[in-house]
Design brief:
It is built from 18 helices and two strands. The chain is mainly α and 329 residues long. Keywords: Membrane, Transmembrane, Transmembrane helix, Transport.
């Protein structure tokens, strides 16, 4: 009787509990493998990208140990002498590094101040175009420079701006100005770099902003028109708030690469006349690491640049969240 009473008094396990207890660890693994097999083509699409990041992004990180060594190619990673923070101290003591660091920061600030807002303005202008065929035509024209390599772009700039180039001929014919050494004069180096970035990348940068604007309900503009808002009011109160979070996220990511000025473009623009203002961290690491074989110091400079970028991203992300915006993470 007692046994029968106990059996009746015990709570009846629900269906979810019975299923959870019946599925053992091995069964769960089997279910996972079965699901992976069903979605095997998706994993195959993921595989090349995963291999790329492992081979070219994660495995090379092991080479950062050279920053703490007096690395010798003959002794290898494990037998080279460990010197601690010696090369990092050298970064702040070497006047050449400080000059290159200043060039990098100044160029990045110029790009943030002048090149970063251009895609925003361009996206707002394209959003105001009502004829769809004309809008698509303009988009195709401004996207095209993105697909031109920097080698071709710098080649075009050299042809146009050289002493016998088209620009100097026009200046002489229209204003009577003699040949201007655009490519040799140090004062022209950074403005030219910023203008090249604007011409090449501004159209491509509008894609994210136009995607954000596509999600705006057209009825908001209709309601604004009924309330008497003109075009400028609609842009200020509807268009710009719609892309504000996108602007913040892209600005945070841009701050993370503030010490990354773009190696290829700068390297192709450098010459002995503008090297004093054009040499940046990327080109400096290239010269120290590959030309002078100072691997440890070049690695320390590269690691320092990455750490600064990481700290800037974290700080900008926290600042954005404090002001009520959505951060990157």
């Amino acid at each position: 009787m007692e046994t029968e009473f106990t059996a009746k008094a015990s709570p009846d396990p629900g269906p979810s509990r019975m299923i959870a207890e019946s599925v053992s660890g091995s069964s769960r693994r089997q279910l996972l493998l079965t699901r992976m097999w069903k979605e095997r083509y998706l994993y195959l699409l993921l595989f090349p990208g995963l291999v790329y990041f492992i081979v070219y992004k994660y495995l090379p990180m092991a080479g950062n140990m050279m920053a703490f060594q007096d690395y010798s190619a003959f002794q290898g990673f494990w037998d080279s002498e460990w010197v601690g923070l010696k090369h990092f101290e050298r970064i702040f003591q070497d006047k050449e590094v400080l000059r290159v660091l200043w060039n990098t920061l100044y160029l990045s600030l110029l790009q943030i101040a002048f090149a970063f807002p251009v895609p925003i303005v361009l996206a707002v202008m394209l959003n105001e175009v009502r004829r769809e065929w004309f809008k698509r035509l303009i988009q195709s024209i401004v996207y095209l420079p993105h697909f031109i390599s920097w080698v071709v772009v710098i080649g075009m700039v050299t042809v146009f701006l050289q002493s016998e180039g088209l620009v100097n001929k026009l200046l002489h014919v229209l204003f009577g100005i003699g040949p201007v050494a655009f490519l040799q004069e140090p004062g022209w180096f950074m403005p030219l770099v910023v203008l090249e970035v604007i011409w090449k990348e501004s159209g491509w940068g509008t894609i994210l902003f136009l995607a954000a604007l596509a999600a705006v309900d057209p009825s908001q503009y209709e309601a604004a028109v009924i309330d008497g808002a003109n075009r400028w009011r609609q842009i200020w109160h509807i268009t710009l708030p719609a892309i504000r979070s996108t602007i913040v996220i892209l600005l945070i990511l841009r701050l993370g690469s503030v010490l990354d000025s773009g190696f290829e473009q700068i390297f192709l623009m450098l010459n002995p006349f503008n090297k004093s203002v054009g040499d940046v961290l990327d080109t400096y690491v290239y010269v120290k690491g590959l030309t002078e074989s100072d691997y440890s110091f070049a690695t320390a400079v590269g690691l320092f640049k990455s750490l600064v970028g990481l700290l800037l991203i974290i700080g900008a992300n926290r600042l954005a969240k404090r002001f009520g915006e959505e951060g990157v993470f």
